[in-house]
Amino acid sequence: MTPALPERAGRRCHNVINQLHSTHYFSPDLERELAAVGVADQRAAYFAVRAAALGPVGPGVVTATFFNFRRRLVARHVPAVWETASPEVVLAARLRAVDATLRRLLGEEAVASKEMAEAAELALRAAEACTPHARPLYAAHADLPVPDEPHLAFWHAATLLREHRGDGHLAVLLHAELDPLEALATHTATGKGMAPKWALATRGWSREHWDAATERLRGRGLLDAEGELTEKGAALRAGIEAETDFLDRAPYEHLGAAGVERLTELAGGLLTTALAAGAFPEGMIGKS
Question: Crossing angle, helix 231-247 and helix 150-175, to 10 degrees?
């Protein structure tokens, strides 16, 4: 009989895998590779690399699938970016950037290690149980080929697992009746989300938009006068994460308790190394 998966084991595994996946978005290697194919603007680069698997889509699709970006910002770069570099060119540039980023952050020894190959095998096995229904970003990436090199195969699997959970998470946010900015603001209030200055600088919203969202949340009894989560707000956020766990349980149940524990251990060690190498900007996460 397969041992039951411990509570939140899938979420813990996702959290380390997701952070490893996300390192390339903040990498100078990505900036260099995208600039080399003509995409020099950082916002255009982000929209391009994450949306390229969908094909040469317009601002509506990107706004819908990314959820928390202001459409006006998206439309400033999409679909114009595809005239500079096609989705196929962007995907190739992204893979080169990921290769360079992982080698720089983790070191050549870790990239070539048997532990990396094991992490790739486990993550790919988990991704076998992901489902494409109503998950457009996952489904688009699942159509891409698995890279041959283990560190790139691991990153590919991490992308599948990240987007699979993310697509489900958006459905839960809709059910909770949180709009894009309200979702950002409540996540920030947990202390685990993006700091407001980062959200405003990268998502296209103004301080007035943010303040209006927090006022709406106060009106619903989710935030208090100081912008902290109320008991009701904390319960809502906890429920959102639990429901997201439920929708995302298949890959981790498929991998099994021992496999999830081992993948979390391996990915956690890689993440620790990446963080020590300065993978993310300082001050990105927090309430202020």
Answer: 130
The residue type of 146 is V
Instruction: Tell me the residue type at 237.
Output: R
In the chain the beta strands, taken as DSSP E runs, fall at none
Residue located via tokens 């992204």: 94
Say what the pTM is.
Answer: 0.95
As a whole number of angstroms, the distance between CA 235 and CA 156 comes to 34
58, two tokens: 């317009």
Helices 42-51 and 59-66: crossing angle in degrees, nearest 10, is: 80
Token pair 């084991």: residue? 9
Beta bridge partners of 285: 194
Distance between alpha carbon 203 and the CA centroid of its chain, in Å? 14
CA distance 285 to 288: 8
- CA atoms within a 13 Å half-sphere pointing along the CA-CB vector of 81: 33
Cβ partners under 8 Å of residue 168, min gap 6: 135, 244, 247, 248
259, 251 Cβ separation under 8 angstroms: no
pLDDT averaged over consecutive 10-residue blocks of the chain (288 residues)? 80 96 95 97 96 98 97 98 98 98 98 98 98 97 98 98 98 97 96 88 94 97 96 98 97 97 98 96 72
For every residue of 23-41, DSSP letters joined together read GGGG-HHHHHHHHHTT---
Residue 149 neighbours by CB under 8 Å, 6+ apart: 99
What is the helix (H) or strand (E) element at residue 248, kind and residue range?
Answer: none
**What DSSP string describes 239-255?**
HHHHHHHHHTHHHHHHH
The answer to whether 94 and 30 are in contact (CB under 8 A) is yes
